[in-house]
């Protein structure tokens, strides 16, 4: 019985270490999901930046029309 415990422990560790690597399809799906998430985040950032640029442009035009100094860009 005492000899069996180290053998069982070694077998258990061996099985735990033999985890199967993800398949190509699993890796591809994960990468595609990450790319899609990043693209959606970048799209949102670009829309927000475009809105801010338009607001800045209008503020500068309004300041020039009234002869005031344009506000600093945000």
Q: Structural class of the secondary structure composition?
A: mainly alpha
Provide a count of the helices.
2
Low-pLDDT runs of 5+ residues are none
The protein's oligomeric status is single chain
Shape: rod-shaped
Tally of DSSP β-strands: 0
- The share of residues in extended strands comes to under 5%
Order of helices and strands: HH
Rg, alpha carbons: 30 Å
Largest sheet: none
Q: How many angstroms separate the termini?
A: 75 Å
Question: What is the average of the pLDDT values?
Answer: 86
Helix content: over 70%
What's this, in brief?
The chain is 76% helix and 0% strand.
Describe this structure in words.
With 74 residues, the protein is an all-alpha fold. It has a domain at 24-74. Helices cover 76% and strands 0% of the residues. It is built from two helices and no strands.
Key words describing this protein structure:
74 residues; mainly alpha; rod-shaped
List the helices and strands and how they pair.
Layout: H1 4-17, H2 24-65
